[in-house]
Amino acid sequence: MKVAGWDYFGTAALVGYTDYDGKDVAVLQMSASVSLDVAGVAYYAKNGIKIKGGVMNGHMYWDMEHNFARWIAMTVRTTMEMEDPYYASKFIEIPAKEVFVMYATV
Fold first, then answer.
1. Domain limits at 91?
2. CA quadruple 33, 19, 65, 106: dihedral positive or negative?
3. Distance (Å, rounded) from C-alpha 75 to C-alpha 35?
4. What integer pLDDT is reported at residue 43 of this predicted model?
5. Cβ(34)–Cβ(6) under 8 Å?
6. Other beta carbons less than 10 A from residue 74's beta carbon
């Protein structure tokens, strides 16, 4: 699946049901590999920047009555590779971790 330049390749598994904010929700465990194509972005191309090794893991509460996500907690880990600003022939890798949580109410 492609969303705003990000490619997601993964799975979701139903792990049970719970009550969330008075509603019966399905609990899904999700995991995916993620990648971002930055080749067409001038700044990244000019500076030799690549995003690699992306992994996403988390859980979602799916409201079955209203058919939308009521709560999501995800962690995304990626590594940015770029030319070393001090040694032009070398590369450095910068790990990144993003954690996001989304809540929704009816």
1. 2-103
2. negative
3. 14
4. 77
5. yes
6. 17
* Euclidean distance between CA atoms 82 and 91, whole angstroms: 6
Residues 6 or more apart whose CB falls under 8 angstroms from that of 38 comprise: 5, 44, 45, 49, 50, 51
HEC profile for the chain?
Answer: CEECCEEEEEEEEEEEEEEECCEEEEEEEEEEEEEECCCCCHHHHHCCCEEEEEEEEEEEEEECCCCEEEEEEEEEEEEEEEECCCCCCCEEEEEEEEEEEEECCC
| Tens digits of residue pLDDT in 75-106 | 999 998 888 889 888 999 999 999 999 998 77
The total of structural domains in the chain comes to 1
Six-digit token pair at 100?
A: 């996001």
Q: How far apart are CA 39 and CA 46, in angstroms?
A: 9
